[in-house]
């Protein structure tokens, strides 16, 4: 009762804390509607625009029709947004807002953001429960929640990227991990097992429905299950259930997304099918001597890998799937399998979020003692896991008996083993790609707090240093986390209070001026071209039609974006006009921050990526590849501002301020 009450309270307090930070940073309650919408930057604005669109529709049916037959997100094309994007959450919220009697008391934008901050309460509560389940005491859950809050910079970014898909998905992912942790406990009652399976299925489904990268995260989970199943560290029947739930949840999402081909062609579906097929073909995988079993294991791994690649290639060829090829191009270039001049791959490679995890992250995590505690717990559990794995592989043909199974897993429980491999794999993911650190750091809080409160971990350590005593275990598992909690309160409480009292205000007058001008001076059906980040805001604030947008998981959209971005390349006005008019563009917005970019180093500026993709030499001092040539034209975004006849024949400047320049395209060549 006490632990459950604290879990709910700590979750709600975290939610209120993050909501207050958001309000204080922007003075959200006092700024204009257009400023609130501009604060939803890049793809966040695009997603929120569909919530707004559903609310503005005269009826729900017309709102659904507008999403299924959308011709404003991509000009000259009608697309099914429910198929292309994960926006069912916006649809659900818009229906709730219409149905509930709250319109008089709560503005639509507040209903939206409060829902997201409410999900953070669920997220923290799920982390708390996972740690509690692993350690057996709610004290570890409290420590996990404290670590999550004190490491806020590295555990969440919800307060400044509210509508981002991961902020919807990660709470359900945390619930799923908590449910799996409970499910892997031995000797569950049949009713408890069925209810837990239901919880796993529902959370897996909701996680998959709310984030386009669901398949890659669940593939990591499937690899965790495959590793543990192969090493006899969890019951094979339970692993099969989890493989099945993953596929069922994903296929159900596929149906709801009008048979989205990217889901059908996902590596997860191919991998899970391959594991189940290979297991049927290799029935005696878990018998024999150490070398015999090791050989079978390597053969099994090879068979699963080959079958996965074979099935995936067959599915992609049948479906003619190219939606996710940019991800594999990016991974190929990132891990050094040859340099690439592919524009899409380089666009990702040059973004800090897709780079390696910065070293200063570990300094921040160490300040709260989280990183030290994590390494301590990880070291002990890895040693235990290696001992159990070696024992299991070395065992005789009696390995499969339940008594022997229980004997082998005393050192490392199945639920502990699952969370260990989970944290290791997601750790590698975070180290390689900074944007994915939020999946790791939140689980790091859970894993470190569990270890400090776990009697098994302290027993292993005290036996190792020959100081084992049951009383010492009890003292260590309660005194260490309490001391850390006191340290966190002493060191970080004053800073958190200062943070809550610090008041700022949203200030972006140039973008506000641009949006107001578009609303007042352009036709409702006008088509705008520009950077995909800015155009998401244009759609949200003005409702105008776009040529391109930030939801990049579509091959034709990627090609279209590259074509539109020629406005920042060295191309002739005739070429740029032809390209833009081919997408129906009436206006083009040029941004000085892109044209004269200094944020990235040479070779990573957007104009450099375009030059390389076009075979042109880059600007400025520095080396160029020998096969790159001088461009035959000056850079379009610079030269157009000189108002020379070749440019004014095609483009007329209709708006400018310190940041933006808007040009109207002539209808005829």
Describe the model:
It comes from Acinonyx jubatus. This is Probable C-mannosyltransferase DPY19L3 isoform X2. It is found in: Membrane. By secondary structure, the protein is mainly α. The protein folds into 2 domains: 375 residues, no CATH class; 157 residues, Rossmann fold. Strands 2-1-3-5-4 form a 5-stranded mixed β-sheet. α13 packs antiparallel against α15, α17 crosses α18 and α20 crosses α23.
Short recap of the structure:
This protein has 669 residues and is mainly α. It contains 33 helices and five strands.
SSE topology sketch:
Elements: H1 2-26, H2 33-38, H3 42-56, H4 60-68, H5 81-84, H6 88-99, H7 108-135, H8 138-150, H9 152-155, H10 165-183, H11 190-210, H12 214-230, H13 236-256, H14 261-264, H15 267-281, H16 290-319, H17 325-334, H18 343-349, H19 360-367, H20 370-394, H21 402-408, H22 414-432, H23 437-453, H24 455-464, H25 470-501, H26 509-521, E1 527-529, H27 532-542, E2 545-546, H28 555-564, H29 573-582, E3 587-591, H30 592-595, H31 606-614, H32 636-639, H33 645-648, E4 651-656, E5 660-665
Parallel strand pairs: 1-2, 1-3
Antiparallel strand pairs: 3-5, 4-5
Helix pairs in contact: 1-7, 1-8, 3-4, 3-6, 3-27, 7-8, 7-10, 7-23, 8-23, 8-25, 10-11, 10-22, 11-13, 12-13, 12-15, 12-22, 13-15, 15-16, 17-18, 20-23, 22-23, 24-25, 26-27
């Amino acid at each position: 009762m006490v632990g459950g009450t604290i879990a709910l309270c700590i979750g709600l307090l975290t939610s209120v804390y993050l909501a207050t930070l958001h309000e204080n940073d922007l003075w959200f309650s006092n700024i204009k509607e257009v400023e609130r919408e501009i604060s939803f930057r890049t793809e966040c604005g695009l997603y929120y625009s569909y919530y707004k669109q559903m609310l503005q529709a005269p009826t729900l049916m017309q709102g659904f029709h507008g999403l299924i037959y959308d011709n404003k997100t991509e000009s000259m094309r009608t697309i099914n947004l429910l198929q292309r994007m994960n926006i069912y959450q916006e649809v659900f919220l818009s229906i709730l807002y219409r149905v509930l009697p709250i319109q008089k008391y709560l503005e639509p934008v507040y209903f939206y953001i409060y829902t997201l901050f409410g999900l953070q309460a669920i997220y923290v509560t799920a982390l708390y429960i996972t740690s509690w389940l692993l350690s057996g005491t709610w004290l570890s859950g409290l420590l996990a929640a404290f670590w999550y809050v004190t490491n806020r910079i590295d555990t969440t970014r919800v307060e400044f990227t509210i509508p981002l898909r991961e902020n919807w998905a990660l709470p359900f992912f945390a619930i799923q991990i908590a449910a799996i942790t409970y499910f892997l406990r031995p000797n569950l009652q049949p009713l408890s097992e069925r209810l837990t399976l239901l919880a796993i299925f529902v959370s897996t489904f909701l996680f998959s429905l709310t984030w386009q990268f669901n398949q890659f995260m669940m593939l990591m989970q499937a690899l965790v299950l495959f590793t543990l199943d192969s090493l006899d560290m969890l019951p094979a029947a339970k692993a099969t259930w989890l493989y099945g739930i993953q596929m069922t949840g994903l296929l159900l999402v596929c149906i709801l997304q009008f048979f989205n081909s990217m889901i059908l062609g996902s590596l997860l579906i191919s991998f899970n099918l391959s594991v189940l097929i290979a297991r049927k073909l290799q029935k005696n995988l878990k018998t024999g001597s150490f070398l015999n079993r090791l050989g079978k294991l390597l053969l099994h791994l090879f068979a699963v890998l080959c079958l996965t690649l074979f099935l995936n290639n067959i599915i992609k060829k049948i479906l003619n799937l190219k939606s996710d090829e940019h991800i594999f191009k990016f991974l190929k270039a990132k891990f050094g399998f040859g340099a690439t001049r592919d524009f899409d791959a380089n666009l990702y490679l040059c973004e800090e979020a897709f780079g390696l995890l910065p070293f200063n992250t570990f300094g921040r995590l160490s300040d709260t003692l989280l990183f030290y505690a994590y390494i301590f717990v990880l070291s002990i559990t890895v040693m235990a896991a290696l001992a159990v794995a070696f024992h299991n592989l070395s065992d005789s043909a009696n390995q499969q008996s339940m008594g022997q199974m229980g004997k082998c897993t005393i050192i490392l429980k199945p639920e502990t083993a699952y969370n260990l491999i989970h944290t290791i794999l997601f750790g590698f993911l975070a180290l390689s790609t900074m944007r994915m650190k939020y999946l790791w750091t939140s689980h790091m809080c859970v894993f470190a707090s569990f270890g400090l409160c776990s009697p098994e971990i302290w027993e292993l350590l005290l036996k190792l240093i020959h100081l084992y005593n049951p009383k010492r275990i009890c003292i260590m598992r309660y005194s260490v986390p309490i001391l850390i909690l006191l340290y966190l309160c002493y060191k970080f409480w004053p800073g958190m209070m200062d943070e809550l009292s610090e008041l700022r205000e949203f200030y972006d007058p140039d973008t506000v001026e641009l949006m107001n001008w578009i609303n007042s001076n352009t036709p409702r059906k006008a088509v705008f071209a520009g950077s995909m980040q800015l155009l998401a805001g244009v759609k949200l604030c003005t409702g105008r039609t776009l040529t391109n947008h930030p939801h990049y998981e579509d091959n034709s959209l990627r090609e279209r974006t590259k074509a539109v971005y020629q406005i920042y390349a060295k191309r002739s006005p005739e070429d740029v006009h032809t390209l833009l008019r081919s997408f129906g563009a009436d206006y083009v917005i040029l941004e000085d921050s892109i044209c004269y970019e200094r944020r990235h180093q040479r070779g990573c500026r957007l104009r450099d990526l375009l030059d390389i993709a076009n075979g042109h030499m880059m600007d400025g001092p520095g080396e160029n590849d020998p096969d790159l040539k001088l461009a035959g034209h000056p850079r379009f975004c610079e030269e157009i501002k000189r108002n020379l006849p070749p440019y004014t024949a095609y483009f007329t400047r209709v708006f400018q301020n310190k940041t933006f320049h808007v040009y109207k395209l002539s209808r005829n060549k």
